[in-house]
């Protein structure tokens, strides 16, 4: 059985033909719609590298069948920046050194973006819990925490201050 | 800031340009201040946060088909026959290949060509590649692969490295089952001491678990060769091995580095490189291969599991008199880099301590377990767990603290290693230990106040503080930097300067693999410092320029940084000569700064862009570190190493003794980096390296049973999450090494080495248990 999938991705109406029923939303995005931002690192929902919004809710695109996205809204990491201007989360990742190899980055950026949409000034334990589904092998996470704190302070400068940074480093 | 466009560059034009893929690595350009010692943003960071950076698994070609690999289900078996007839009948299949289709030599290997590209009459590990399929859709390829009929005669697997050393195993390779035995003998082999501690320690098999799986795209070229876009750590060693297997001249196999999703040693050996090229040459189509996570666990080498038997003798003050050790490293089915791992474990086997009498024997052997090779720390990790555990035992036997015992024995500049080599640059082992010991300790758990997320078990809500005990432990380690034992270790760099739209622009071209560590940033910084320009482009790394050596052994900033500095100096000399002629000055009175040439004598200046006009100045440099030598095969004596890196950790842990759960509360680290070329990136290496050491301490192990991997997934092989990795307190020392470019010292590996023993020592301190094996599992703590 072969199906056709219509889905809105980053505000654009997209159509894919000849979709095999076993294909994931991740395969649809990466191999059929030319959006390789969401990464494939485990295909089991363990690493979070393929994190995208589906109707505004975070999902691992590897665990969603392509057909399940029919008629729905998907937002990927490619849809976060406003043209040349990076989203504050993206900008903070660049500035703090939260990007090394960058394979986990798209998933973490989307997950952090979602957290800051829900919580103005998250505490460190809140950040850790929100990002616990996203594996990073390069950074040891410290600079990712820094990035989220920085993005939060810029997005909500008057918000409730999060708890003090946990560590210190020079 | 980042310019993803790839303007044509005459030095990179090829007759294969028409068949270039649609999504490829791009030139990275930034025009910012930021020389050596500062932390400019990575030139690829914006692409990466946008999801637009072209990782190897993102490559795409209009005409491409997909390749998959059939692997052996058995750790040891004879192949009676392979029947591909059924697989060929699947619609959409383009090719099905076996070892008879390998046109060149069906062997490869980093140090010894002992591994078949595709298995012939025997398979030596579970997961060994046996056949390849190319098809229009990856699922079609997988279905066809399952229709290949391989008739195996299953054999008993050899799985015990110590039994192999004892000679109690059937022959797995024609030359014998011992890949390397390296003894180290120094001083009196029969030395005695009043205080003796003994221990046997075991290290499980750790996986690099880089997030970007093995992948690449091979494009057949009109000249009968192939262009391979791939994620690797060493382009030229791949190129040489692929050419031999394909039976092609080296210049017909051209490699370009694609985005690398982490490496940590796991990409030093070939994985899909020859396979994709074979399929491309047979189908005449571009072939993409991407491993999934399960295949990745079978598709690359791992860290050697080890058994280490140690005896330390000391005087009553705890000063070491002798160390005797036997180290058994399980190399698995093929040699990979086992010989060099053996050398490291042996030569660094007593750790960063002064020991007058040493007798170490280290063996690396063949078994039918998964092949093991390079992983961050490379032999030094296994030894450090054992010698640091021993130092804690010695401290207890002598009745002093763990820091004090280490201070009394700490190596320093001028110390002699067990190889006889004298340490001739900074070795601040004592200073590093004092620094981590002086850090304030985190406050104790207050059950009334504590956030459950900060207790062992975390969000699983398994304790509210009852049964939780705290411990503090220390570890310090040593790692050789750069390639050792007389290897001709060099790198090549080309630097070009020209005027682009009135701005002076520099371009750097090397074959040095950026794997995430930030080399691209550091190379830009070096050019800025040496040439006084802002705008620096880094070309995609490829084999159209000379070898840069491997991105491993913490060597690439040292080596390719050294080559870029040398090429920059050659460019600078030419520019100063041009300016001297223009100004009627002497070149030695001129300096480059701010896009101009300035006279230090009279302040005269000439703008570089004007000086260059329509011309470009381009220079290529090949650069070497000072020579090393092989160690004696019987005594292990010799000046084997170039440089040493040192790091120390203090770990604080909370342990739930009822459930055996560990939470690392804090890690403190002090490391000497010689010169922090990019302080932000240095911290990133220390934090990331420490996290991998934490993983080995309490989580990470490829579990092997009768030669089979039982947990080839991220569901069952656990790496630290952001909930597992604690905050860190970090001190970075910059004690220049006068032998190294900018005084720098390799950064990447030392923090991985010392964090593991520090964490285990902290768990011991909390629980009083001996804990002689890593990773420490809950049942080791609960005794159940």
Automatic annotation (TrEMBL), chain A:
Keyword Acetylation assigned to the entry: answer is no
Q: Which organism is it from?
A: Goodfellowiella coeruleoviolacea
> The 2Fe-2S ferredoxin-type domain covers which part of the protein?
3-80
**Pfam families (alphabetical):** Fer2 (PF00111), Fer2_2 (PF01799)
Keyword check for Nucleotide-binding: no
Name the Gene3D superfamilies on file: 3.10.20.30, [2Fe-2S]-binding domain
Entry protein name: Carbon-monoxide dehydrogenase small subunit
Q: Which UniProt keywords apply?
A: 2Fe-2S, Iron, Iron-sulfur, Metal-binding, Oxidoreductase
Q: Which domain of life is it from?
A: Bacteria
Q: List, in alphabetical order, the Gene Ontology terms for molecular function in this entry.
A: 2 iron, 2 sulfur cluster binding; metal ion binding; oxidoreductase activity
UniProtKB/TrEMBL annotation, chain B:
InterPro entries in alphabetical order: Ald_Oxase/Xan_DH_a/b, Ald_Oxase/Xan_DH_a/b_sf, Ald_Oxase/xanthine_DH-like, AldOxase/xan_DH_MoCoBD1, AldOxase/xan_DH_MoCoBD2, AldOxase/xan_DH_Mopterin-bd_sf, Xanthine_dehydrogenase_dsu
Composition bias, Polar residues? 1-11
Record-level Gene Ontology MF annotations: iron ion binding; oxidoreductase activity
Pfam (any one): Ald_Xan_dh_C
- Which residue ranges does the record annotate as region Disordered? 1-43
**Domain Aldehyde oxidase/xanthine dehydrogenase a/b hammerhead: start-end pairs:** 50-156
Q: Which NCBIfam families match?
A: pucD
PANTHER family annotated for this entry?
Answer: XANTHINE DEHYDROGENASE, XANTHINE DEHYDROGENASE SUBUNIT D-RELATED
* Protein name listed in UniProt: Xanthine dehydrogenase, molybdenum binding subunit apoprotein
What is the native source organism of this protein?
Goodfellowiella coeruleoviolacea
């Amino acid at each position: 059985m072969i199906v056709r999938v219509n889905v809105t991705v980053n505000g654009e109406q997209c159509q894919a033909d000849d979709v095999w029923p076993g294909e994931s939303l991740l395969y649809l995005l990466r191999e059929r719609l030319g959006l390789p931002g969401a990464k494939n690192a485990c295909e089991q929902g363990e690493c979070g590298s393929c994190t995208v919004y589906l109707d505004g809710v975070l999902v691992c695109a590897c665990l969603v069948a392509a057909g399940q996205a029919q008629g729905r809204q998907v937002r990927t990491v490619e849809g976060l920046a406003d043209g040349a201007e990076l989203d504050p989360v993206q900008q903070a990742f660049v500035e703090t050194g939260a990007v090394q190899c960058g394979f986990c980055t798209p998933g973490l950026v989307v997950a952090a973006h979602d957290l800051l949409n829900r919580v103005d000034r998250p505490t460190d334990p809140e950040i850790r819990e929100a990002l616990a589904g996203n594996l990073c092998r390069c950074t040891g996470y410290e600079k990712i925490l820094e990035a989220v704190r920085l993005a939060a302070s810029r997005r909500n400068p008057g918000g409730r201050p999060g708890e003090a940074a946990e560590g210190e480093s020079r | 800031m980042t310019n993803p466009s790839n303007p044509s560059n005459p030095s990179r034009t090829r007759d294969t340009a028409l068949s270039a893929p649609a999504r490829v690595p791009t030139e990275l350009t930034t025009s910012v201040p930021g020389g050596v010692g500062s932390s400019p943003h990575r030139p690829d960071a914006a692409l990466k946060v946008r999801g637009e950076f072209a990782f190897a698994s993102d490559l795409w070609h209009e005409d491409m088909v997909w390749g998959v690999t059939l692997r052996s289900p058995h750790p040891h078996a004879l192949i009676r026959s392979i029947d591909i007839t059924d697989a060929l009948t699947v619609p959409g299949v383009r090719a099905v290949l076996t070892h008879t289709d390998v046109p060149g030599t069906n062997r490869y290997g980093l140090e010894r060509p002992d591994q078949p590209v595709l298995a012939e009459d025997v398979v030596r590990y579970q997961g060994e590649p046996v056949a390849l399929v190319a098809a229009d859709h990856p699922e079609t390829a997988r279905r066809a692969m399952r229709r290949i009929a391989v008739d195996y005669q299953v054999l008993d697997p050899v799985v015990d490295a110590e039994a192999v050393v004892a000679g109690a195993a059937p022959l797995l390779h024609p030359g014998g089952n011992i890949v390397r035995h390296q003894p180290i003998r120094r001083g009196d082999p029969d030395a005695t001491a009043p205080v003796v501690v003994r221990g046997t320690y075991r290290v499980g098999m750790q996986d690099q678990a880089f997030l970007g799986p093995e992948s690449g795209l091979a494009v057949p070229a009109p000249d009968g060769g192939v262009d391979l876009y791939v994620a690797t750590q060493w382009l030229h060693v791949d190129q040489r091995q692929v050419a031999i297997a394909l039976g092609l001249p080296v210049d017909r196999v051209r490699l370009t580095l694609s985005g690398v999703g982490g490496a940590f040693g796991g990409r030093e050996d070939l994985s899909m490189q020859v396979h994709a090229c074979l399929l491309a040459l047979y189908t005449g189509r571009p072939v993409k291969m991407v491993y999934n996570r399960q295949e990745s666990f079978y598709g690359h080498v791992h860290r050697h599991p080890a058994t280490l038997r140690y005896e330390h003798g000391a005087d009553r003050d705890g000063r070491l008199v002798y160390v005797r050790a036997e180290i058994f490293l399980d190399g698995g089915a093929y040699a990979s880099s086992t010989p060099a791992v053996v050398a490291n474990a042996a030569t660094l086997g007593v750790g960063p301590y002064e020991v007058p009498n040493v007798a170490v024997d280290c063996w690396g052997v063949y078994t039918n377990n998964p092949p093991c090779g390079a992983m961050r720390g490379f032999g030094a990790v296994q030894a450090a767990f054992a010698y640091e555990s021993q130092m804690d035992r010695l401290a207890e036997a002598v009745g002093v603290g763990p820091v004090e015992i280490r201070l009394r024995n700490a190596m320093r500049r001028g110390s002699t290693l067990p190889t006889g080599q004298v340490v001739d640059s900074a070795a601040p082992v004592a200073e590093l230990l004092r620094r981590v010991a002086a850090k304030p300790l985190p406050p104790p758990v207050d059950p009334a106040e504590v956030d459950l997320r900060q207790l062992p078990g975390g969000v699983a809500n398994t304790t509210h503080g009852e049964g939780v005990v705290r411990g503090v432990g220390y570890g310090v380690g040593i790692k050789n930097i750069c390639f050792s034992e007389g290897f001709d270790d060099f790198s090549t760099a080309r630097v070009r300067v020209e005027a682009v739209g009135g701005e002076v622009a520099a371009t750097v071209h090397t074959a040095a693999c950026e794997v995430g560590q930030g080399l691209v940033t550091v190379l830009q910084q070096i050019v800025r410092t040496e040439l006084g320009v802002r705008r620096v482009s880094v070309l995609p790394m490829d084999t159209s320029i000379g070898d840069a050596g491997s991105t491993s052994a913490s060597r690439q900033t040292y080596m390719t940084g050294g080559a870029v500095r040398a090429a920059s100096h050659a460019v600078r000399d030419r520019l100063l000569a041009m300016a001297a002629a223009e100004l009627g000055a002497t070149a030695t009175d001129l300096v480059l700064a701010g896009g101009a040439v300035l006279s230090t004598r009279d302040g005269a200046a000439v703008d570089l862009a004007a000086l260059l006009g329509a011309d470009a100045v381009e220079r290529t440099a090949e650069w070497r570190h000072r020579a090393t030598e092989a160690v004696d095969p019987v005594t292990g004596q010799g000046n084997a190493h170039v440089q040493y890196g040192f790091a120390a950790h203090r770990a604080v842990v909370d342990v739930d003794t009822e459930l055996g759960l560990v939470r690392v509360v804090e890690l403190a680290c002090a490391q000497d980096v010689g010169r922090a070329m990019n302080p932000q990136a240095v911290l990133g290496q220390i934090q990331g390296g420490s996290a991998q050491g934490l993983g080995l301490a309490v989580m990470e192990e490829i579990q092997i049973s009768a030669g089979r991997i039982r947990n080839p997934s991220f569901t069952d092989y656990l790496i630290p999450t952001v909930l597992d990795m604690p905050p860190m307190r970090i001190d970075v020392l910059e004690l220049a090494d006068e032998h190294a470019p900018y005084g720098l010292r390799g950064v990447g590996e030392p923090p991985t080495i010392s964090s593991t023993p520090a964490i285990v020592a902290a768990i011991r301190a909390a629980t009083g248990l001996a804990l002689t094996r890593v990773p420490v599992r809950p049942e080791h703590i609960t005794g159940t």
